[in-house]
Batch of 3 targets.
Target 1
Amino acid sequence: MVGYVGTKKWESAISVEPSPSPTIESSQVRGVTLHRLSLVEDMRGNLIVAEFERQVPFLPKRYFMVFSVPSSEVRGEHAHLSCHQFLICINGFCAVVADDGKNRQEFHLDGLLTGLYLPPMTWAVQYKYSPDAILLVFASDYYDPNDYIRSYDRFLSLTNGAQK
Amino acid sequence: MVGYVGTKKWESAISVEPSPSPTIESSQVRGVTLHRLSLVEDMRGNLIVAEFERQVPFLPKRYFMVFSVPSSEVRGEHAHLSCHQFLICINGFCAVVADDGKNRQEFHLDGLLTGLYLPPMTWAVQYKYSPDAILLVFASDYYDPNDYIRSYDRFLSLTNGAQK
């Protein structure tokens, strides 16, 4: 038998079993939800678990991480026609404004336990990045430039049309 | 039209288009690969993009993050029968030893740009966590206690059987 690093044994099964306590908060913006993820605290290390299509409302095809954003920068400023996104600020802080064409709300993302779900047809802006901020985004689709709505006026005409 | 945060406009399409430069390195351990992910550097902020079933070899059903692990702790010490995993140390540092029953190798995970792919039937141990380490793990399956092989002897007998 190959000798192995570490002699301290412990039962790790519990550490990856989802805790039953995640919560989902609705918002003023259509379909946008704020997710408080499960934390399992343990002397051997803490664990956060989230399952796709469960705590995160979709299966991701892609992720991206944004970091080293100057505090004056505003990112996002677009909506997606069909892509779903889930945002977690895994270090530092940033804020997200989400807008459904009628209502908008600012959300503060400040840690591993908070996820923001943005359904398609949500105009979103990320800003107020702290110098150390790292924003992790899960996306339901591969990159497709045709999925972007970059004009707020076009976004409004599409959402108002849809809501009539 | 709703007034909007931020007046500085820029074209953000380029920032989420995958860079063509990710690389995949093979290892001494069967099926285990070290992935150098794409970085897009930009004055407005840097971006890392990875696509599932492309740079990451599977679609994830789940992710978990491990942090606040005492430096003396050893985590993992198991293999999976069918679950694929992809590990990124998104803050700080940790090391992973991967073992296929014949060969083993230590990998150093020290940042957002390095991902380690562990196929099923890979014995893996994580250790040498720095105090600020955060290990992000994508898993191809939901949590299933029956997918774990927790005995190294059983792992060896299964892998040796498979390789005969």
Target 2
Amino acid sequence: MTTPRTLTVPEALARLRWRRRFDPTRPVPNGTLKGILHLATLVPSQDNLQPWRFMVVRDDANRRRLRKCVYDRAEVEDAPVTVIVLGYRSPHRSHLGAILDREQALGTMTVEEAVEVRAKATARMDRCADPAAWSRLTAVRALTALMIAAESLGVSTALVEEVDHDRLIEAFGIPADHSLCGLVALGYPACDEPFPGRLGLADLCYQEHFGRPWTLGEASPDDVCAGP
Amino acid sequence: MTTPRTLTVPEALARLRWRRRFDPTRPVPNGTLKGILHLATLVPSQDNLQPWRFMVVRDDANRRRLRKCVYDRAEVEDAPVTVIVLGYRSPHRSHLGAILDREQALGTMTVEEAVEVRAKATARMDRCADPAAWSRLTAVRALTALMIAAESLGVSTALVEEVDHDRLIEAFGIPADHSLCGLVALGYPACDEPFPGRLGLADLCYQEHFGRPWTLGEASPDDVCAGP
């Protein structure tokens, strides 16, 4: 089998599907999995706090255990990998030092700037009304990047949204300062999944003010691909 | 100026930055804007409900008005476009019929399947504990795709997370069944923004169980690009 070409963003988004059936006999290679996780970490976050954490479940017994936490959805057992994406509400307490050290090592920040950013980032988190919600909303950006990155490397995904939270927390030891953001099963599809269509921009967009109709029209192929 | 090449997913993610400064003299062409919005709509959602809505603000007076809703952040005035991304909690009431009609027209669903999906989708929404939170978390996936799609077409983005909600709702007429998911300013950067680095996979990943160290190592360039 030849290595597939890495997809452009429009190609990957056009192929993205909410898969139901995975081929349980085809594992995701370690290199590909690491690549996908790495790409997911590249999305920006407030003060570079990166409040996403990934719990990678591949072991047979744990995939069966996970299935029991998601109301018996087969995807998480059939797929060779499921990533449990968590939002972490206290990165400013535990990781900000390491983050700022790295920025200084890269030469993108001076010592003085690091002191200032540390104070500002901490103050922003302290006035955040709901740090758990913030961490979850931010971690969804990494989860989405993970799905798009997977597709670009030829790996398909399924989201699992209906979760027995208490059971998952208990089974996988998730601490109170981490909140479930979502589960993404990763693997190779067992069958084709046709594109189910989407509402048009006229249904989904407003101009300037809520309720004011969208008049710019739908996108054409030229609009979504800048061409070679 | 030649049309730039559409970027691959790894390229777009590597170039994604949280921009601070936009060139206010350089508009985003209509075609590019439509392409970006269209690509954002391609992410999957539960029962294909697509609970994201985009309010596109480009008018000078409205960009100034928007700036007042985000504690005077200049990005939303300097950038030629800001998209206010909303989560909509009732798509199963207002849009499910149109969504299922489209699926039948595409041939991906029979009449009988549409009846079944309608019942299941409605039941799922009815038992959803917090539809507003669900719509916001889902809409973040479209917001993230929008950012990555913009970057792939050569357009940079800035997120604005600190928002005076009451003021925004009032100024832009956002109704109670729509919740703010986030603001994305779109435009061309006024200056370079260096990559600030990220924590490594060893800091962000666990294996099989929370707290169990990641032993698969970091990604190498071969892992993130399948090659030509």
Target 3
Amino acid sequence: MDHLQVTFLVDAPPDSAADFVESVMLEQSVETPLDVALRHAFVRENMLGRVTALEPLSATRVRARLELPGLIASTDVAQLLNVLFGNVSLHASIELEQFELPSSILEKYAGPRFGIEGIREQLQIFDRALTCSALKPAGLTVGELASLCRTMATGGIDVIKDDHYLADHPFSPFEERVRQCQEAVAEVAASSGRRSIYCPNLSGTPDDVRRALDFAQRSGVGAVMIAPMLLGLPAFYEIARRDLEVPVLLHPSFAGATRIRPEILLGKLFRLLGGDAVIFPNYGGRFSYSREACGAVTEQLRAPWGGLRPSLPVPAGGMTVERTPELVDFFGKDTMLLVGGGLLDTGEGVLERTRSFAQAVSARAT
Amino acid sequence: MDHLQVTFLVDAPPDSAADFVESVMLEQSVETPLDVALRHAFVRENMLGRVTALEPLSATRVRARLELPGLIASTDVAQLLNVLFGNVSLHASIELEQFELPSSILEKYAGPRFGIEGIREQLQIFDRALTCSALKPAGLTVGELASLCRTMATGGIDVIKDDHYLADHPFSPFEERVRQCQEAVAEVAASSGRRSIYCPNLSGTPDDVRRALDFAQRSGVGAVMIAPMLLGLPAFYEIARRDLEVPVLLHPSFAGATRIRPEILLGKLFRLLGGDAVIFPNYGGRFSYSREACGAVTEQLRAPWGGLRPSLPVPAGGMTVERTPELVDFFGKDTMLLVGGGLLDTGEGVLERTRSFAQAVSARAT
């Protein structure tokens, strides 16, 4: 039988961790006392996991490596999450550090449909990092947002996304916004010969998101944004697999289950389920992610993994144009830098600031 | 304009917390630097929040009370979550302690469709706590699960639910399981005159869940189980509002974002979105929830709240029959005790153990 390899970090003294880790193994497999599981031949042979290693990390912390049976996890995406971090997520002392899927499960997932290469082909940009900015603040009218979108496209931003607070509000209706912003990028492209992608935010229940996606795709947008932890991972997966025809940029809102390591949730699970590009909080910005954490997210998004395409890393969150050279050097070319408020909060005009950002990235082209 | 009242616990020294909390307010409202927001009249007047209090709790911790504008949150359930704990969930130093909705938002949500009273009416039991157990371990055949279901119904369990690892596996197909387990409870009811509810687990993507729900409801089941943090809160909400015709029991799998206090996530949000009964880890069992945390979850599930029906608290997780008197005394009558593995892991037979459990609860009837 095929197994998942799962690594948990556990707050427990190495001397006394074994019993607890054994109970974690039972929790994540049969969820009964061991002797109940042993009574049934099929359960005994197919459903039990195994603790394969217990590594002391400090006086109060161990790394536990577990083999968990693939049969439960293989049936649907919710069961995969159940086995990876379902009930044990309720233990404050446990963090999901890493997982590896057997090929029998991995091959069920297509991962990103476009990925880095597909996004580059849409933009016809191959020699440099990509740029991204956000239409905000929420509360602007559709006309104001479309005008900002036009300015950013003129200034040379590659992907212009909605803020994640833009939904279908009466003061900025979704369909009208999509129409006008898409028109703005189309007009700039017609006159400049340079394409920018407008990327609307899809919010609400799965049916809301599906209806919005349908409208956006019929309007010709080049990408869409979804926050999968808000919507629900299985709900996102269903839409990614069935309805998406353009690249999807994933937003990390509500993803603060810090006890799944960021590189595993944002880097690995988001990619597995189909994220073409993934936003994460950059180091040195508004959020507390370290440089190392950002490097780890990036690594998981781009590393070879079965037949899955690499996803485009999108560092964001309080970034500034001035940091462009540093960030391109750190993240490399296959990256999209997202500067939002930093383009708006400036003495010079938004257009000049946007141009500076686009030029700073172009200057690092290889 | 209507506001949400939101309370965050923040790891920061009281002396220096003010700036950070101000940035949290901006993050959860306009998500731009303040002066960008101030430029636009509509944004300035409608979109900005306010820090209303900063209470020192210790040398390294403060309670921050914020007023956040209701306009963004009012449009859909994903935006409500965005405003409550979207981007700030990415700060490891912040915990969502409490929220209050303005009536303009609260009245959009129907909450539980059955709640405690509706479940009691289905069972025609009004004078005692309710009992619940689980069909497991996964890996049993449909015939074995149905036989266990029959035994538990004969022993007098009120609600017999699937384990959350039961999905639509080849070794235990969903529809066949629902058919046989529902038949088992119907037969026992016909001969004993005492009704037990069989409650199948609905797993997968939203469409999988909807198909399974439809089959289960057509088969006459008395309740269903869903794990909303796995499925996604907006996805659960859509199904609860549109498709559910029977009470829904909510499972806490994947709900370990401990930085939303358990009583707020499991007690308040799960109820708001329509949970009729909510499972949570009981104190003194396999999980680390304290007695106080369990009391707080229960309080939130049952407290008066606008026009919302109370939800039925379902403490679970490594409970034993022996603890019945203590637990009924602690949780009170409007509770359903869930003993799973504790009915299986026993020298006496499952039927005897089940009877003991049912009798122990009946003995505390009022």
